[in-house]
What does this fold into?
Amino acid sequence: MIEKHFTTDKSLPGPDQHFSVAPQEFRALVRAVRELQEQMGTAEIRPTPSEEKGRREFRLSCVAARNLPAGHTLEGVDITFRRPGDGLPPKRADRLVGCQLVLPVCAGDQLTLEKVQRERNGE
It folds into this structure.
């Protein structure tokens, strides 16, 4: 919060006139405050555009290590990781183990939730 006294003439009587700002000084104060606001940016914390690009291009997704038929129950050896990282991340691989494929998957294809049963066999 900024409180600033304003006057049209600093020579007028009164206790606040000598430290009040005239129109030109007030204009400069407003410009300085707007510049400071711009420099502060926002409180929003999010990745920069270059970080977003890196996430897409350099992160990995869970993919089939080999051709797998529909009905196959996924094992750890069936899952490998490849770019781009727009699919299930490697940290979710353990959740895929034990799931049964509802669609056939070719080697290198991303393993998506649409291709596996949502629940593991027997759970």
Summary: Residues 58-115 form a domain with the Type Iii Antifreeze Protein Isoform Hplc 12 fold (CATH 3.90.1210.10). The chain has a mean pLDDT of 89.
